[in-house]
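Supplementary Methods, section 5.1.

A reviewer requested that the exact input to the structure prediction be made available. We therefore reproduce it here, unchanged from the version used in the analyses.
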Amino acid sequence: MSPEEIEALFTRRDGTYLFARWGRPIVPVVFGVLDETVPVIKGAIEAMVTLAGHRMAETDPELGANLMLFFFRDWDELLELPDLGRMIPDLAPLVARLKQGDATQYRAFRFDDDGAIQASFVFLRMSDEMAAIPAETLALTQAVQVMLLWSDSAFANRSPLAVLPDNGATVLRPEIAAVIAAAYDRMMPVAADDASHALRLFARLRVDPAP
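The structure derived from this sequence is encoded token-by-token as follows.
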């Protein structure tokens, strides 16, 4: 990837550059899926954490779980969840906007004093189209999108995943994998709001050749 392509991954629609990565071990919890689906989702998260050289844990000392994934059929179901309104400010107006826009997913992040990701909340409305996506593909897509604070348009035109032509397997695009690995380099900051950060990422890219 070129420096400009990397910069675009973290440049929001309003033109501002904003990057953040997790600053603490990730502790996921999943709501609204069958028991057999939970390992698939947590396995995808673990794969991304391993790629990044980051860490997972059994519990977060402040929050218990700091990565919460909710699967449901209708946005109004969120309004019935106890205490969710304390974690997501202005939940009712947010649900109204998501319903009006016929959205199928939404991610919210919290940050610590250093600007690093402290917690993330993933909401997936399982429309017929979403339900048709294989669980492994859906899980990997969401795992990729919570590892970093990507731009709100980073994957609007191209998925972070690719399908291998020889066996049809769905995998993470190598250039996106390289960006994630570079972002978690111990010499890189946990957060940045200057586009020069993209040049530092570019200098650390390691893309493995295709098999």
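The chain has a mean pLDDT of 93. These observations are discussed further in the main text.
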